[in-house]
Design a protein that fits this description.
Blueprint: H1 2-9, H2 18-40, H3 47-50, H4 54-75, H5 78-103, H6 120-127, H7 133-153, H8 166-179, H9 184-193, H10 202-209, H11 211-222, H12 233-250, E1 262-268, H13 287-295, E2 297-302, H14 310-319, H15 332-335, H16 344-350, E3 354-359, H17 368-375, E4 379-381, E5 392-393, E6 396-397, H18 399-411, E7 419-424, H19 440-445, H20 454-482, E8 488-494, H21 501-507, E9 520-526, E10 538-539, H22 543-551, H23 557-564, H24 585-602, E11 621-630, E12 644-646, E13 651-671, E14 677-696, E15 706-714, E16 717-727, H25 736-739
Parallel strand pairs: 1-7, 1-8, 2-10, 3-4, 3-7, 12-16
Antiparallel strand pairs: 2-9, 5-6, 8-9, 11-13, 13-14, 13-15, 15-16
Helix pairs in contact: 2-4, 2-5, 4-5, 4-8, 5-7, 9-11, 10-11, 12-23, 12-24, 13-20, 18-20, 22-23
Length: 740
């Protein structure tokens, strides 16, 4: 029946002339170009502008025309093909609108990385920005129904079989080869010759030249995203030589037997001080936070993002690597893939810390689970591990529940080892329009500046409501820490400003700069005396070295260097879409050298230069790293570095040393209770520079579940030791018998 209806209402072109079919296709193509200009709305992609400058309009529509052409070849239906292309443009425009409103950044080719991490957590978070999920679901059902009906009802434009589609297929292949990402036409058309491209601002490119033009230009500019150019050891070495003296003086002499402090770092979602805005007074917001600021070290933290992109700040804090050194990397956890990432966590693991991450979202979001394993977190607590009593405030788990989780780890840790907790809050995450289950009396009681429209006022009030909870919970945690007998330090900072663009534009900032140049606060405070940390501006990549030094456990050359660099470099960490002012030649050279340092560290090659940082005469020897590991392949290749192992793990000790010595004896001992040596291995070598030694610890007395000490000796003198745990569970790795 549908076929008869289609034949009665739909024109059948199957037996019409080639000219008629071609004219019908071009008529639809022209109509699509007009619709695309209406959907986009960029200043140069309008009908009025098309008569003077047609190329921006045409280039912006070409991807959709190619999509419609491809669908036509596959389906033989013209209306259906252009309908799907139009819906695709509408969907891209809507997603782009949401992203720009919240992050002040348009869609980028790199955003496709998110498709690899779609799960329930990401659907929940991103779905909140789309509005009512019921409305969205009904809209999708309607679109699918219309699309299916159109496919059924529309008469084919060409005869069945490939013979009837030979000509359009051949022409399509030619067009795709020319316009595809590898074709020269694409590079020429979207390289900026035919429409305006602002290299440092995709947002300006999008608003001026259109979303699809911006995506094409951004692809060409960032098509090597995630690829790290080979670093220059020579250039990096120049910087290390210049700072060798300060680094030697600034590195901590770490005693592993000392009672290292517990360290808590809280990365607070979208935390900033609203009193930096005009017409919001300091005494009206964050009253508890301001009191703690006066008691500890604090200042402004320069972060590499705005309104979102939490992992950009997070990556810099956990690794010490500046994303400025990796300009093609927008989403480090998605675009970079490493089985091991040295930084804050691995350093603390070497000093016997129990390392925890806590986050009330799924581990698949942002690909955190995989990356936190690479960073070295031994315990990773995600939303499903929170208590069933976890309280929601608005759309997300409350800061109160996160604080409960932190206090539980502090008070009921699995061992007496010092603890490192990295907690990521989520309560204050946008969007701020929907606020289910909040205390509306408290929400309404918040005072706002006059003159804000209803939506802007609603969003700002919602943000301030959750910000007050941040203030309350930080105060609760700090009071708990101050009453604790264990030495503990707390570090607190915001990952970026919230996505409150209309409020920022309406109120403005007291310092006169725009929202993309703003900083977030940082705070560092301990319960065991002055931390010796100066107040002031720092960058997020400086923070890990400062934290470790305050705890007295920073013997890492890379992080010590980052701590000792001039603090005025912090100003160069900001949203990636801000164009830097011209730099002095001396500063440009320093930044270039830092770029090489960061890339060497990321690729694991920085250790090759650590020998440049030795004691004055270069004759002494320093252990720069010592870890216990477990072989993980039948050939017993190195792997499984950590602090927790099964009873049947085939163990080895990996020791990194730098300096100069002849017949240097290096030993590793695994000691049990009462300093009883259960496993021991050693070797002798001549050292001139740097060496990495693996000592086999498989043979020896059998191990039982419990805590052990790994000790490293140079020429019979103990220079390092830290605690490791042997668990009762059998290891999934190969056993010693497998080697035989």
């Amino acid at each position: 029946m549908l076929t008869k209806f289609r034949d009665s209402v739909g024109p059948s072109f199957t037996h019409r002339s080639e000219l008629t079919r071609t004219l019908w296709f071009f008529a639809l193509a022209l109509f699509f170009v007009l619709v695309a200009t209406f959907i986009d709305g960029a200043s140069d992609v309008r009908l009025a502008a098309a008569f003077q400058r047609p190329w921006p309009v045409i280039a912006n529509a070409i991807p959709g025309l190619l999509l419609a052409w491809l669908l036509l070849v596959l389906s033989r239906r013209a209306l259906f093909s252009f309908w799907v292309a139009t819906v695709a443009y509408l969907a891209l425009a809507k997603v782009n609108q949401i992203k720009v409103a919240n992050l002040q950044t348009p869609l980028l080719p790199q955003d496709i990385s998110f498709l690899r991490t779609i799960d329930a957590s990401s659907m929940h978070l991103f779905g909140a920005y789309a509005g009512s999920l019921l409305v969205v679901a009904l809209g999708l059902v309607a679109l699918v129904a219309i699309t299916v009906l159109l496919f059924i009802l529309e008469a084919p434009l060409m005869a069945r079989g490939w013979k009837g589609r030979a000509t359009p297929t051949f022409l399509l292949i030619c067009a795709l080869l020319a316009f595809g990402p590898v074709g020269h036409v694409w590079r020429h058309l979207y390289g900026g010759s035919y429409f305006t491209v602002v290299p440092w601002s995709p947002l300006k490119t999008s608003r001026k030249s259109g979303l699809l033009n911006e995506l094409g230009a951004s692809y060409l500019a960032y098509r090597d995203a995630g690829r790290i150019p080979p670093p220059s050891e020579k250039e990096a070495g120049e910087l290390l030589k210049r700072y060798a003296g300060p680094i030697r003086a600034g590195m901590d002499t770490v005693s592993e037997e000392a009672a290292h402090p517990d360290i808590i770092i809280i990365q607070s979602e979208a935390f900033f001080d609203p009193s930096v805005l005009n017409r919001i007074e300091r005494q009206e917001v964050l009253t508890r936070f301001h009191v703690w600021q006066a008691r500890g070290a604090s200042g402004r933290l320069h972060v590499p993002t705005f309104g979102g992109g939490t992992i950009r700040t997070e990556f810099e804090v956990l690794t010490g690597i500046s994303l400025r050194s990796l300009p093609s990397v927008d989403y480090p956890y998605l675009q970079l893939s490493y089985t091991s990432l040295r930084g804050l966590v691995s350093n603390l693991n070497q000093h016997g810390y129990d390392t925890y991450s806590i986050h009330a979202n799924g581990g698949g979001f942002w690909n955190r689970e995989s990356n936190f394993q690479a960073l070295g977190f031994k315990h990773r607590v995600w939303r499903d591990a929170f208590s069933k009593k976890a309280k929601y405030e608005g759309l997300y788990v409350s800061d109160k529940s996160m604080t409960d989780q932190i206090i539980d780890v502090l008070d009921h840790g699995k061992s007496d080892a010092p603890r490192f907790i990295f907690a990521i809050s989520i309560e204050n995450h946008g969007p701020y329009a929907a606020q289910p289950g909040i205390n509306w009396a408290d929400w309404k009681a918040l005072r706002l500046p006059a003159g804000l429209d209803d939506k802007t006022a609603y969003d700002l009030r919602s943000y301030l409501y959750h910000l007050d909870h941040v203030d309350i919970e930080l105060d609760r945690l700090l009071n708990h820490v101050m009453a604790s007998p264990r030495p503990t330090m707390v570090v607190f900072y915001g990952d970026h400003l919230p996505s409150l663009v209309p409020a920022f534009e309406k109120l403005g900032f007291r310092d006169g700069t725009n929202m993309l140049q703003q900083t977030v606060p940082w705070l560092m405070i301990g319960n065991f005396g002055d931390l010796g940390v100066p107040n002031g501006d720092i960058a997020s990549w400086m923070l890990p070295g400062i934290v470790l030094h305050a705890a007295g456990v920073n013997d890492d050359v890379f992080l010590t260097l980052k701590r000792m660099l001039p603090r005025d470099l912090a100003n160069l960490t900001h949203s990636p879409w801000i164009k830097d002012e011209s730099l002095a030649p001396k500063q440009e050279k320093l930044l270039s050298q830092l770029t090489q340092i960061d890339r060497l560290r990321l690729e694991g090659d920085f250790v090759n230069l650590a020998g440049l940082v030795t004691d004055g005469d270069g004759a002494s020897v320093r252990v720069t790293g010592s870890v216990l590991g477990s072989y993980i392949t039948p050939d017993f290749q190195v792997g499984g570095v950590g602090n927790t192992f099964a009873v049947n793990s085939p163990l080895f000790a990996k020791i990194d040393v730098v300096g100069s010595a002849t017949e240097l004896t290096i030993q590793a001992r695994l000691q049990g209770p009462n300093q009883v040596v259960l496993r021991e291995a050693g070797t002798q070598l001549n050292l001139d520079g740097i060496a990495s030694v693996n000592l086999d610890l498989r043979d020896g007395r059998p191990l039982t579940p419990g805590w052990y000490q790994l000790c490293v000796l140079l020429n019979g003198t103990q220079v390092k030791s830290y605690r490791v745990q042997i668990t009762g569970a059998a290891s999934p790795r190969v056993t010693t018998a497998a080697r035989e």
